[in-house]
Amino acid sequence: MLKSRTQGITWLPKLRSLSGKEAEILEESEEVQALKTKLQKTRVVKDKLKTTVARIRNECDELKDVNLTTVEALERETKRARKEEWSRNKFCGAVVTSSSLEGARVTNRGWKAWC
Q1: How far apart are CA 112 and CA 107, in angstroms?
Q2: Which of 10, 30, 54, 114 is a plausible cystine mate for 95, CB 3.0–4.6 Å?
């Protein structure tokens, strides 16, 4: 009775043949294996590059911090030097003015001795 019911079904033999193919173990070709090893090597190189890039970024950030500190120190020293020069020039101007009022001081010592 079951045979008579399944005789009209045309897709049943195809189903049997497909299930047999699935049972076969597909072997990878040499080309696929070579590509897989190449992919694995590429992943290793990529990981090495990532660590190198991270290290270089850290070094760059450290150098930026050192550079900023150096620039700030240089600006402080330049500002201090300009202030000292301004004070010295102000003093020299005062000496010249007072020396011109007292002619004897200019002739004996000279105003450049004060600066």
Answers
A1: 11
A2: 114
Total Cβ atoms within 10 A of residue 95: 19
**Residue whose entry in the numeric block shows the structure tokens 């699935």:** 22
- State the pTM of this model: 0.41
- Give the C-alpha separation, 99 to 97, whole Å: 5
Give 1-31 pLDDT, tens digit per residue. 566 666 666 655 555 555 544 544 456 688 8
What tokens does 92 get? 């020299």
CA distance 104 to 100: 9
Is residue 92 within 8 Å of 111, Cβ to Cβ?
yes
**Cα–Cα dist 115/112, whole Å:** 5
**What gap in Å lies between CA 110 and CA 103, rounded to an integer?**
10
Task: Confirm if 96 and 103 have CB atoms less than 8 A apart.
Answer: no
